[in-house]
Amino acid sequence: MQFLRFPVRALILLGGITSMSSYADDTEAYNAKFQSTYVWQFKDAFPAAYTGANSLSTAHEKSYSFTATAAFGFRPWTGGEIYFNPELSQGVPLSNLVGLGGFTNGEMARTSGSRMALYRARLFLRQTWGMGGEREHLASDMNQLAGNVDKRRLVWTIGNLAVSDIFDDNAYSHDPRTQFMNWSIMNQGAFDYAADARGYSWGTAVEWYHDNWAVRAGRFIQPIQPNQTSLDTDIFTHFGDQIEVEHSHTWASQPGKIRVLAFRNRAIMSRYRDALNLSAATNTTPDLNAVRTGEQIKFGIGLNIEQAISDDIGLFARVGWADGQTETYAFTEIDQSISAGALIQGSAWGSAQDSIGLAFARNALSAAHRGYLAAGGIGFFIGDGKLNYQPELILEGFYRWQTTKQLNLTADWQHIRNPAYNADRGPVDVVALRAHLEF
């Protein structure tokens, strides 16, 4: 699949076209949105008893990432929407993006480099069929045309997009460009969803909305090799399936949602036990690359809760579990994760558009995964040569300042204990500055 090319100057100019309404009830015929996000991070030196091939560096480090995305949408027929997102990215990660389960910058793609890259992030069709009931308004946004829709409707999406565009959403923690940045806080850490190294895939999903209920299911293609750019186009052989049930409710006159997610991946993956068995038989260090020979199944479940406490305070929590018998294939090395936090708008101090966020995550590994790392095995993201296992603990806090309607600036701090699940290393502190432009 060849990436579609788009002139950078045209991308920026067209990003200023916000919308056009030519239908009744504020329905947009087309819109164009633009975002740009720059993240600078700094990590201080920290203590460690030893360091391995995929350890977080113990030295002082600086990191940056930059993304710019244009989102073009138009309505070719009633109920139909087509979206196209050309995207630029550039960046240098901390420690070559190894040494953590919960990485500190959700904007950092695994293919980021010091040279700017232009690629197609999304190109997809969304079709909606109304099925009655009350009406609700969808506001104009990136990859969403404004319009009124039935609360009872069927939505079909097909094409090139991110699985997280549809699944595991949360009003208070889902967007690392404006909310929490840690990978295990912005998503369910154990949700190893199908994606290329930039976080995108090809596939299809169906969503059924019925008043306060929603059910969505989708299938997307996997990378040919773990955490690589090239995708396996045989969607009937190697794939990631997920299904999610969502219920909206009102508690103490405030809105909330509960989502339950299950996923199942099928791909050519290595099993930790196979690597350990081969290591014992040959008296060598266990190696996942030596046992990646057959198709395996990986599955998991998750719970996702969001709840407003007032007009200015919202709480969220996620719990995720994966079986942890096979290698991480497309996201990060987390087999179980619990995260929770709060997002507070600044009305109380006279800055309603500002926000404060505070959250924590506890990430863990399966017994087989621990055994593999303790024996000296190296995963795609972690591997210290040995392991004094403890859960990885993360605390993140930020203040976001809305300087203008289009620009906000964020100061972020993350404290990580037991990086890569190793009590012999850390703790480590990471501070960040983020600038986000959107119009």
Strand portion: over 45%
**Low confidence ranges:** 1-24
Provide the gyration radius in Å.
22 Å
Element-by-element helix/strand order = HEEEEEEEEHEEEEHEEEEHEEE
For the largest beta-sheet, the strand count, sense and barrel status come to: 16 strands, antiparallel, barrel
Please report the total strand number as a whole number.
19
Bin the helical content: under 10%
Overall SS class: mainly beta
What is the residue-averaged pLDDT?
92
Strand order of the largest sheet: 2-3-4-5-8-9-10-11-12-13-14-15-16-17-18-19
Provide keyphrases for this structure.
single chain, mainly beta, Porin
Short précis:
With 439 residues, the chain is mainly beta.
Structure commentary:
There is one protein chain. The chain is built from four helices and 19 strands. It has 439 residues and is mainly β. The N terminus is likely disordered. The protein has a single domain, classed as Beta Barrel (Porin). The radius of gyration is 22 Å and the shape is globular. The strands form two sheets. It has a 16-stranded antiparallel beta barrel with strand order 2-3-4-5-8-9-10-11-12-13-14-15-16-17-18-19. 7% of the residues lie in helices and 47% in strands. The longest helix is centred in the middle third of the chain and has 11 residues.
Task: Spell out the blueprint of helices and strands.
Elements: H1 8-14, E1 19-21, E2 28-43, E3 61-74, E4 80-92, E5 117-130, E6 135-138, E7 147-150, E8 152-161, H2 183-186, E9 201-210, E10 213-221, E11 239-251, E12 254-268, H3 272-282, E13 295-308, E14 313-322, E15 336-346, E16 351-364, H4 367-374, E17 392-402, E18 407-417, E19 428-438
Antiparallel strand pairs: 1-2, 2-3, 2-19, 3-4, 4-5, 5-8, 6-7, 8-9, 9-10, 10-11, 11-12, 12-13, 13-14, 14-15, 15-16, 16-17, 17-18, 18-19
